[in-house]
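Record pair follows.
FIRST:
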Amino acid sequence: MMKKRTGLIILLLGLLMTVIFSGCDFISIDMNTSDDDHDTQTPSPSHTEQEMPSSQTPVVTATVNLPDILVPAASGQAVEENGQAVIDFSNAQDGYIMAKYTEATDMKIKLLLTIPEGIQYTYSIQPNGQFDVFPLSGGNGVYEIGVFKQVEGTRYSMVLSATIDVVLTDEFAPFLRPNQYVNFNKNSAAVRKAAELTAGITDFMDKVTAIYHYIITHIDYDTHLAETVQSGYIPDLDEVLARGEGICFDYAALMAAMLRSQRIPTKLVIGYTGDVYHAWISVYSEEDGWLDNVIHFNGRTWELVDPTFAANGSSRSAAQYIGDGANYTAQFFH
């Protein structure tokens, strides 16, 4: 076990030492100020692709066994609804609710989700009559849910609300399933690619390493999108994978989806790196528990995994910046 961990340490150290700090500014949703804008700060130049050591190259076979995906469902057993919107919390114990806006409108629609700690999460709802999935990432306790319709500018009025008391089936439930930000299904290209990359691999950290390395060597930072992204942006993971480009939100969401499809609990984290709004991930290890925002071990402590930074060049400055995570402040978990 020690030899395996040592080899992993060396590999991850090598990966992390290729990183360079780059800005990744995306503004949080706030119904009283502005919508969610992402990655408006210009990053460093994109990375140079590196070859993975042959001993660590994942086995890719012609026939891929796709994993079973935990599929969210609006089963209609516990709902609040009216002529404008529906909130379905039938499967809240599995870590999510679903909501949709049913009335035709050109106005913006928001969902405000207040977790047990009192922190408010604000999401956009597409007024297309289709359900969106929203995670109950605050654990057990009372959640308040409200659907709001724009009146004008930053003024919104509530059209539907619900209060639910949640007892999760397990603490990982919200971080194993698809949701609006980490959106995937069994037919997703991201799920197939994750299955290819991890074929024949059983060890947790070896799977994380294979997926992490693929993303940082195959996805370039999209400077144009970062400069032109519109409010309400939500990652289309298969499009990101096909284009081979994305912003920090895309990097984190894609890696979270690929890991979740392999039943590895993964948090999409949104917060600050210094004074820049940013996205990254956290993963859960049965051996070490939640590796909060980290997967790299430097011989003394675990260090942050940030696929955006790791994909953008080669400099020790990023490793030094990441350090023990002191420069990272998490605000929201999805």
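SECOND:
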Amino acid sequence: MTTTKPLRPRAGAFRRHFSGRVDPLTSAILVFPLFLTYQLGILGGHGQNGVDLVTRALIELCKHDLANYLLALAAMLVGYAAILVILRHHGSFHPNRFLPVLLESGFYALSMGSLILFAMSKVTSFFPGLSVPVLPELATGNASPLDILVISAGAGLHEELVFRVVVMGGLAWLLSGIGARSAWLVALVVSSLVFSLAHHLGPMGEPFAFAAFIYRTLAGVFFAIVYQVRGFAVAAWTHALYDLYVLGILA
């Protein structure tokens, strides 16, 4: 006799995932693979993300010792596995929660990534002097698939943490007196502009170009909407997969 029981956990995961915004604890669990990919990837000399403050603090905590750094990551991985076991035992989390996040994020990344690239190609056709931003590694043809993977994981995790959770969330909280909707709109616009401008600041920043600034502002608006509606995990994975898709094309 046939049965549909094996399909129930997966269907239940999708229903639960799309029933509301992903909560902070679940988001933290879901983005840990991005964290681990990036933390191990930068050991290959692929460079830190410009707004990555976590790694700097971790390196200081490990006293700039590689063995201590690897032990810290191993301890985090063991702790992460233990949390997964405990939460699954209590019915608070199931590993099948990863699949809906990846599918939803992948859809947003492919659709919006293609749309933004299409829009920018139209803009640059009207203004030939403008160009879509390209990483130095991509411009010289030296970017490997691993480079793109590490860059994308770091951007998805750290840039969403800083510009959406801290900047956008903090600004919306500070402006809550003007009304929730107005505060959210102002925070969305400001955080998206700051997100774009940050790529042109500091010693590693790119020279300012109008097309690059607009391109990243549009991307920032997109990520901000995903974060506000669907939560941090979906925004971080969308950003990472979006960068993986776009940088892969530009490479």
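COMMENT: The chain is about 75% helix and 0% strand.
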